[in-house]
């Protein structure tokens, strides 16, 4: 028996034994995005085709009867000609006919098993847990802490009879709401019945809970359980982690460079669609090299011809985790040239901030030039834009990248007055040039970050949640995890993700709270004099 729905196909293989059907096997499979678009006839035929392929070894060589609730299929198998038939449909019918041509119709009411296998199971809606007040009355009678409750002066305790029974439960009538006392076995269920409705925050959960029930340290329990709620931790953002930006000024020119790729751009007249951008960390000398493609071979060749052949081999290259920079060919170039490669963490462009910030200036300048020029072609405007960016003085030092690189400023279009004084031969020119360049040593940029925030528990927690910075579908959780922490560094953590170990920026993490960690927290708080602070027991 087979059946197909809009999303799935299902079948059951049965054998008629002792005047009744005995199931031998079940089959169910979700349809692909293309198969979902099939007509009803094609989906029902596909269900038979997949079921025959699945159960082939069980019935091969035996008489097979196929039952389907789609009656047109009973005639399609006996067609004498396949002229004009869709090739896919003809192939499936030919395959089925190799095993049987006996396809019979069955009503949908009698095809219950196959019909259920072709439907996606609807998830049950979890309703809030209700409290059985008769069981509550029994638990109150066995609770030994009620004697201490009677001594509380701020409570007005009264035993109230349950309707239609002779049982009574202990309640507090000091507020406008009658609040029953909950023994320990009922507290978690009562909390979940309130919090799991809409997962409100800690303050709202405490307020709603205190209007309905009471028990010692109810506020503390509600806060602890809300803090450890996995759904809340994955979906809510209280405050993003923002760590202090690290600084590591280079010691020499062209010692440390940053590389990245810009594009795809509108194709130029020569077929260029990308830019390989390179910038020196010391001098801030930029390069933007046009590319036809971004394969590893093209990237390696362009770096060698466009930078290394002019400025020599750098000591360090910083790049993101693009597949071009992760390739074996790129790694071989680094090893051959004696270059150490530093890779940034995923979804954290601040790690490559120098070149990412320069991209903004480059794109803004190209856009302005293309808007103002007659042809508006970025490839023709690129050399002029690079000239201007190299000659522009930096706001922090007042010196341009060209001055850092050459020891003098560039002559730009419009410089009409040129120093024509012929200087005498100076044999100490090299030493003076070195002295001038050292005087231009870039100062460490100050990063004023008033919004810096790193959660204290992030330094000690065993598990963390990872923020998903990729494009998400609507109503998808903001965080995923929790994942165990294997190693801690100042700017990144090494995490055990499913199937791999990777480094993740600390700015994408937040501590994960679990009930196990809170219940096993034996930390004792003491005053400055050494006295142990005992928690205050409050009745909310």
From TrEMBL:
Its EC number is 2.7.7.49. The keyword Zinc does not apply. Signal peptide: none annotated. GO terms for molecular function: endonuclease activity; hydrolase activity; nucleic acid binding; RNA-directed DNA polymerase activity. Residues 245-409 form the Integrase catalytic domain. CDD domains: RNase_HI_RT_Ty3. GO terms for biological process: DNA integration. One of its GO terms (cellular component) is DNA polymerase complex. Transmembrane segments: none annotated. It comes from the Eukaryota. The keyword Hydrolase applies. Keywords: Endonuclease, Hydrolase, Nuclease, Nucleotidyltransferase, RNA-directed DNA polymerase, Transferase. This is RNA-directed DNA polymerase.
């Amino acid at each position: 028996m087979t059946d197909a729905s809009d999303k799935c196909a299902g079948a059951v293989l049965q054998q008629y034994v002792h005047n009744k059907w005995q199931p031998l096997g079940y089959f169910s499979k979700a349809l692909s995005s293309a198969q979902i678009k099939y007509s009803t006839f094609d989906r029902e035929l596909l269900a038979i085709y997949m079921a025959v392929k699945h159960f082939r070894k069980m019935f091969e060589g035996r008489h097979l009867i196929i039952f389907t609730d789609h009656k047109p299929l009973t005639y399609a198998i006996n067609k004498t000609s396949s002229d004009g038939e869709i090739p896919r449909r003809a192939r499936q019918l030919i395959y089925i006919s190799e095993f049987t041509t006996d396809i019979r119709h069955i009503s949908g009411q009698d095809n219950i098993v196959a019909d259920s296998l072709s439907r996606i199971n609807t998830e049950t809606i979890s309703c809030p847990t209700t409290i059985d007040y008769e069981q509550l009355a029994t638990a109150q009678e066995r609770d030994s802490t009620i004697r201490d409750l009677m001594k509380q002066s701020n409570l007005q305790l009264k035993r109230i009879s349950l309707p239609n029974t002779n049982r009574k439960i202990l309640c507090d009538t000091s507020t406008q709401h009658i609040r029953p006392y909950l023994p320990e076995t009922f507290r978690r269920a009562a909390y979940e019945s309130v919090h799991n409705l809409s997962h409100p925050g800690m303050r709202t959960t405490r307020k709603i809970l205190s209007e309905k029930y009471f028990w010692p340290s109810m506020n503390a329990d509600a806060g602890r359980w809300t803090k450890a709620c996995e759904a809340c931790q994955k979906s809510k953002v209280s405050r993003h982690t923002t760590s202090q930006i690290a600084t590591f000024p280079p010691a020499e020119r062209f010692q440390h460079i940053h590389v990245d790729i810009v594009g795809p751009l509108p194709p130029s007249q020569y077929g260029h669609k990308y830019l390989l951008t390179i910038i020196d960390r010391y001098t801030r000398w930029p390069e933007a090299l046009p590319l036809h493609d971004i394969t590893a071979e093209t990237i390696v060749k362009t770096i060698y011809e466009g930078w290394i052949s002019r400025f020599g081999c750098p000591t360090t290259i910083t790049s993101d985790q693009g597949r071009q920079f992760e390739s074996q060919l790129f790694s071989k170039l680094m090893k051959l040239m004696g270059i150490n490669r530093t890779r940034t963490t995923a979804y954290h462009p601040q790690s490559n901030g120098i070149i990412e910030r320069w991209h903004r200036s480059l794109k803004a300048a190209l856009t302005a030039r293309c808007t103002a020029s007659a042809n508006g072609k970025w490839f023709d405007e690129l050399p002029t834009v690079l000239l201007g960016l190299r000659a522009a003085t930096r706001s922090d030092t007042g010196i341009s990248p060209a001055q850092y690189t050459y020891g003098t400023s560039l002559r730009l279009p419009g410089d009409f007055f040129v120093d024509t004084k012929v200087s005498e031969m100076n044999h100490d020119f090299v030493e003076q040039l070195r002295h001038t360049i050292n005087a231009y040593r870039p100062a460490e940029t100050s990063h004023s970050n008033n919004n810096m925030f790193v959660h204290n528990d992030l330094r000690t927690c065993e598990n963390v949640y990872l923020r998903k910075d990729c494009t998400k579908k609507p109503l998808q959780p903001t965080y995923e995890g929790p994942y165990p922490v294997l190693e801690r560094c100042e700017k990144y953590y090494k995490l055990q993700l499913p199937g791999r170990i990777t480094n993740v920026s600390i700015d994408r993490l937040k501590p994960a709270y679990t009930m196990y960690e809170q219940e096993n927290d034996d930390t004792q708080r003491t005053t400055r004099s050494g006295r142990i602070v005992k928690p205050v027991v409050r009745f909310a």
